[in-house]
Description:
Layout: E1 2-7, H1 11-14, H2 20-23, E2 27-33, H3 37-46, E3 51-53, H4 56-60, E4 67-70, H5 77-86, E5 91-93, H6 101-114, E6 118-120, H7 128-138, E7 145-153, H8 158-161, H9 171-174, H10 178-194, E8 199-205, E9 216-223, E10 227-234, E11 243-250, E12 253-257, E13 265-269, E14 272-276, H11 286-296, H12 306-324
Parallel strand pairs: 1-2, 1-4, 2-3, 4-5, 5-6, 7-10
Antiparallel strand pairs: 7-11, 8-9, 9-10, 11-12, 12-13, 13-14
Amino acid sequence: xxxxxxxxxxxxxxxxxxxxxxxxxxxxxxxxxxxxxxxxxxxxxxxxxxxxxxxxxxxxxxxxxxxxxxxxxxxxxxxxxxxxxxxxxxxxxxxxxxxxxxxxxxxxxxxxxxxxxxxxxxxxxxxxxxxxxxxxxxxxxxxxxxxxxxxxxxxxxxxxxxxxxxxxxxxxxxxxxxxxxxxxxxxxxxxxxxxxxxxxxxxxxxxxxxxxxxxxxxxxxxxxxxxxxxxxxxxxxxxxxxxxxxxxxxxxxxxxxxxxxxxxxxxxxxxxxxxxxxxxxxxxxxxxxxxxxxxxxxxxxxxxxxxxxxxxxxxxxxxxxxxxxxx
Length: 327
């Protein structure tokens, strides 16, 4: 039985992940931790979790817990992950894996030293609709894949326009702006489809001046097999101009789908057009958590690891390095 402790039981754990730990076979959520004792106790009561803590090290060192899910903002991921790894406990880390590739590398080096597995919450690698897209490509329906076009446009929130900023646009906590929070899912999924990105060309800007992080990013990238890609991310458009699409073009046709809105998958082969449902599960992390539990109990393997998660962080660092003056 994999007995989980959650560090950071915030919004992401309410529906997306937290309840799934008790719904997966051979898995149980034993304890949660949040610095605010009242909020930690409230979460434990509502989700029927036996224990709650306000100190991460106390949760990690609880002998009833043998795996740790780190769901804090990224600024704490490396610290808590390495602490859990040194305690010999496998870790499942929210995405992005850390604020930088350098911190991801530290986590992976610790995991290698202490022989402890690391997994990252890039759960689209395990979702049925996204696996259907991969199936279409792997079965050769598009023929040879030529290129990918990615667009994600979002309007700024009222809070952002009023100067009430969340940690998601504080690079010291998140690694960058919304690009790091949202594009990480997209870039990781494309890594899953086509392999590690080999080369990037990019620039990042701040156009709306709602915060200091980048709010516009444009990038070109190259996958193995000479598959080209372009991505445009803008987080300051009007509400009527929002867009969420990935299009994959091959010699025989194209696939179009969304990353976050779960629109139907559109497959076009020559003059034939078909739509396929891309259902959003109640708990979107369920399928990946199931894989992780199977991996930890020797019954299978998991598709999103510290190695793959670090690759995505490395690509994002490369894309925004000029904006932040990073090496």
